[in-house]
Amino acid sequence: MITCQDILELQLDGVELIAGEKGLTRPVTWTYMVQTRPFEEHMNQGNFALCVVDYVRFDLEEAQNLASYIRIGSLGLELEELRSSVVAAQLGEEAISTSVLAGAIGLIIVIIFMIIAYRIPGVVAGIALILYTSLMLITLNAFDITLTLPGIAGIILGIGMAVDANVIIYARIREEIGAGVSVRNSIKSGFSKAFSAIFDGNITTLIAAFVLMWLGSGTVKGFAYTLALGIVISMFTALVVSRLIVNALYAVGVRDPKFYGSAKERKAVDFLGKKKVFFAISIILILCGPAAMFANSHAGNKALNYSLEFSGGTSTTVTFNEDMDIKTIDSEVTPVVEEVTGDKNVQPTKVVGTNQVVIKTRSLNQSEREALQSALVEKFGVDDSTISTESISSTVSSEMRRDAIVAVIVATICMLLYIWFRFKDIRFASSAVLALLHDVLVVLAFYAIARVSVGNTFIACMLTIVGYSINATIVIFDRIRENLHSGSREKLAEIVNTSITQTLTRSIYTSFTTFVMVAVLYIMGVSSIREFAAPLMVGVLVGAYSSVCITGALWYVMKKKFAGKGQPAIAAASASAKSSSKPKKARDVSQKDPTQPKKKNRKRVAERLAAEEAAKKQQNDDAE
Hints:
Helix content is 67%, strand content 6%. The chain has 624 residues and is mainly alpha-helical. The strands form three sheets. Strands 3-9-6-8-7 form a five-stranded antiparallel sheet, covered by helices on one side. Helix 12 runs antiparallel to helix 13 (426-450) and helix 13 packs across helix 18. The N and C termini lie far apart (99 Å). 38% of the residues are buried.
C-alpha cells in the first residue's frame, strides 16, 4: 500500500525533497496536508487525493530551481479548490466570555487595591485604568486588529505598564509629602520626577515593539501591534489624564495631605550584601532548564513539549451522530482522545454547519490511529467509515521561528543602545540585558520542568516577559541615576541599596497587580488560556525578583570590576567609596569650619528649610 507521504514530502520552509519508495521517480506537488489514505487506484490517472502533478524525474538542481520558483511566486500554476470548510472558533464562546469576565474581575481587584494603597490618587488610577481598557478595545476595533492569545498578552502587559506608571507617580507624591512639601508642590514634583522613569521604560519597550513589527511575522507581529497601542495609550492615561484629574480634585478642595498619604523614610535594605546568594539562586534556576531538557531527552521524550504548531501532528476528522458545541467537545470528546493518545495538548475544532469535528493531536502511528478510531466508535457510536486521518505539518514554520529570534535579538540590541544613550553608561545597558536574559532562561526552565506545551503562545509569553523585565529594570536604574546626580556623599553600595529600597514599594505593587490580572485569567480560563497564563505568572515573579535582587547588584559588580570613564557624579561617588577610611575621616572633621553643619547633613538641612518655607507660603495662600 503506497501513500502520498511515502512518495514525496516537499517542505516549503526548508525546501527539502525527500524521495520515498525505491523505484518511484515521479514526485508530486507540495501540500499543507498529506492524505494518508490509499491512492493506488488513482495512480494510472496521474492525479490523486491532494497531490496533483505531471510525473517528471527531478535531479537535485531541478528540485532546487523548482523550489526557487515556488519561493518567489513565479511558477505558473492554476490552483483548483478540492475541499473547503468553515471552522468555528477554537476557543469557543465560553472561553471568550470567561476570559472577559476574568479580565473584568482582575481589573476590579487591581482598582480596589490601588484605592486602599493610595487613597484619592488610587481612585484616579482606577479611572485611568478603566479609560485605558476602553480606549484599547475601541482602538483594536477601529483598526480591525484580530484579537488572539498573543494579543491578549500584549494587552495584559499594557495594563501592567499603565498600573506601573500610576504607582511611580503616586509613590513620588507621597515621598514629597513625607518630606514636608505642600500637597500642591508635591503633586507637581511627583509628576515631574516620575516622568523620566515612565518615559525611559515605555520608550524602551516601544522600541522593542516597533522592531517586532518590522521583523516579526504572524503572532509576533500581532503581539507587537497590541503592545505598541497599549504603551501609547497607557502613557496618555497616566501622564495626561491622571494629571488633569488630580489637579482638578485639588482645585475643588481635596487638599488635605491625609487624602494622599505620606511615605516615611525607611532604612536601606542591604541587598548588595546578599548578592552572592542571589547570584547562586539565579544560576541554579537557570541550570534547571538544561538539566530538565537532558532528562526529558533521555527519558524518550522531546527536550521541550512542542505542540502541533511547532512539530506538526495528526488531524482526525470525525462525523458525530449529533451536533456538539465546543463546551461539550472539550468536556466529553477531548478526555477520550487524551486517554488514548497520551497527548495533553489536543486541539478540537468544530466544522460549522455540520456534525464534523477536527481533532488535532501529536503524530500518531498506524496502531494509535486505529485505537483512537475504535475508542470513538465505542464511546460515541460514530460510523467508522466517517473517520478520516491526515498528517499535518507545523503551522509555525522554521522561517517564522527564525524571524522571531532575529527580531528579539535586534530589539535587544536597540534597547541596549537606547539605555546606553540615556544613562551615558554601558554598564547600565549591559546589566539590563543580562537581567532580561536571566528572566527568559528561568521561564524556559519552567517550560522544561512543568512540560508546558510550547506553541504559538510560547513566543508571545517570552516577548511579554522581555517587555516586563526591561520596564522594571529601568525604574530602578532611573533612581540610581538620580541619587548619583544628587551629589550624595554616600558610598556607591549605599546608593544602590537606597535606590532599590526607595523603589521597593513600586516593585511589589506593580508585580502584585500584574500577577493578579494573570492569575484570575488562569483560574477562570479554559485549558489553552491556563497553558498561556501559567508561564506568564512565573515570568512576573521572576521579573520582580531580578529587578530587585539582580539588576542593581549586576550594575554594581560591573562598576567595581570594569571602572572607566563615566559621569562626574558616578566617578565622585566611586572615589568617595574607595577613599573613605577612619583616619582620613577624623582628619577631615578636624579641618571643617565648626560653624557649618556636616557635609552629609547640608542637603537635608537645605531641603527642610525649603519645605518649611513652602509650607508657610501655602498656609498664607490658603488663608487669603
